[in-house]
What we know:
The protein is built from twelve helices and eleven strands. The chain has two domains: 2-184, Aldehyde Dehydrogenase, Chain A, domain 1 (3-Layer(aba) Sandwich), CATH 3.40.605; 186-313, 3-Layer(aba) Sandwich (Aldehyde Dehydrogenase, Chain A, domain 2). The chain starts with a helix and ends with a helix. The strands form two sheets. Strands 8-9-10-7-6-11 form a six-stranded mixed sheet, sandwiched between helices. It has 347 residues and is of the alpha/beta class.
Amino acid sequence: MIKTFDKLGSFLREVKNFYSYDKYLSKHYKKFFSSFLKIIQRITIENNWFRIEDLLITFDQWGKTLKKEKLEFWMSKYSFTKKKSKKVLVIMPGNVPMVGFHDFLCVILSGHKIIIKLSEEDNLLLPFLCKIIIHENPMLKNKIKFTNNIFYEKFDYVIATGNNNTFRYFEYYFRKYPVLLRKSRTSVAVLQGRETEEELILLNKDMLTYSGRGCRNVGKIFIPHDYNVHWILKKSFISEYITKNYKYTDNYKYYLSIYTINKVSFQKNHFVLLKEEKNYHSPISVVYYEFYNNLNQLKKVILENSNEIQCIVSKNFLEKETLFGKTQYPKLENYADEIDTIQFLNG
Length: 347
């Protein structure tokens, strides 16, 4: 099974290299290549949130992650007993390309069958990649099923990810099943005033990759009381491609107008707004910031609000921190909401 996903990782690395360095794919993957290019083109046309730059980040992340040694190290932490295979319904979100792939990986590597309900925003990538997976391992054909209507399906376990409204619906509807539910989270960064230019550039990647729509995107920054937020804006050029996304720029123009009309204080460049705010969940095109005076007190505040936070981006601040520029490159053992999906499935 691990060999199958190692092969998929090789394919994604080759696709990334083709786009980035104009390198041709090996013969092993040529049969899939032209079809995959058409899928990529179709995705960028049908869903303007998914730019080619974002898709390449996704391919890069999974290409680097799906390697034999990493998969073996991850799986070596678990003991799998011979239990009856479960049917696991996985309801996937669509805010970020392939955002539900980690759940898919957990179910298959745990030896279970998966029933997948895709979001309309991201319903092309995984079905195509499953063709490659089944080509490499035909035995998986009967373990993977896509559905458009969960009410017609029979299942034993449920993994569902959505926003705070759908969370309440999931909680009620799946109350009789073993269920792993996830709702909206955001990520925060803590600056201490000693960050390098490179770290501030990487912070902007953490803020704006995927148009800032993911739970691993930094939506709020804690800064020292005498910090100049323009230092952050000056390093945002790395994400300027985001202006090609009219949906993102519409959000930017909307909040710029609202804040201006209501005389709300904010800082800006031509594609991102920084607003001083106590709340954690910022809208698209806006990143909140908050001043702090005491790091120890800030640690306490962040830990008290940990149920709102997916990642904490910092350097030498907390033990479980994420390095600058790494929010979209989680390790296999970095589970969403810090809930071990493998343990849940093997319960």
